[in-house]
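pasting for the record
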Amino acid sequence: MHTRMRVVTMKYPAILGYGFRPFFLAAGAAAVALIPWWAGSVVLGLPLHTAWPGTLWHAHEMLFGFLGAAVAGFLLTAVPSWTGQRGFAGGPLLLLVSVWLAGRVLVATSSYWPLLVCAVVDCAFLPLLAAFLLPPLLRGANRNTRLLLVLAALALVNVVFYTGIAQGSTTLARGALLTGVNLVLLLVTVIGGRVLPAFTTSALRQRDDPTPLRSWRHIDEAAVAAMVAVLVVDLLAGPARLAGLVALGAALLQALRLYQWRGLRTLDMPIVWVLHLAYAWLPLGLALKGVALVWGIGAGWSWLHALTIGVAALMTLGIMSRASLGHTGRPLVVQPITAWAYALLATSAAVRALGPATGASYSLLIAVAALLWTAAFGIFLWVYGPILCSARADGRPG
């Protein structure tokens, strides 16, 4: 299959004009469908139509459904920019979207299908995505080719997850999903370390703010290494105390890294501060993990949702809203309602991660967090759905 595609022509609808378009729309749709369904199963007893334990279904679909689509949209858009080659569009892009969608449908109805059918279709998506991305990266000898190792690792995680399901081992399945989350956090650490300083510097220059960003190279390198250490310790199922200490060390390094990017100077620019806010949840979530595992402090036991909602989902929403504007020829200024979406999602993270410390009931916290989440991504679909489905504002292809 050829992976060097021409950008959209008249024979393709706008939604298939560039990689970010269908996959950002898919990520938003998955967000507003999957979380209410999960919350409804917990609070109202709605059926999930899956033979898997409900928590595993929920975690898997957030990782490989919602985040999988967002990562695909980002990479299918970033790789042409990195390599200077044409973007992915048309029929091949439709094929890739169809494989992702088929996986979601099969997983959502997994109680009606042999597990092997679900596994083969669902596990095909990430390798197929890599097959699209690898040739242009290799042709350009691009330094970002190594990011495909993370993609390959995520694909392997999915295989291990299905192995755990097949063996009836929730321990293996949960361990695989935790590794997947850690891989996503590593991806945020690497890519965030590039885009946050660049976007912040650009925004400050536009308003003639001469404030320079600090650049502590060794802190940047140490932060990435610390996230690798978090991944390895969790992967090897090391002692809880060791995992907690590593998390605390990573939290300190991530906080120092974030401090040098001067996020407080962007508080009047939602399209920038949302990325800083999302990254701020990374040291906070790691610190919660550390205090929970080292000292057994109950307030930290919901650390996973600080990292998944606060970091991964909020960063995803920020990047999708920014890219959807920039790559459709629109000014990089979000509407006030989009800023509200950022705030709603950040509040959802706070409710889910910090709410248990208040003693509130589990069902209430799930319901409130789900409502806030759904409102945030509902706003995204309402504002950006038409943008993603229509031609560029400047008349250019793509």
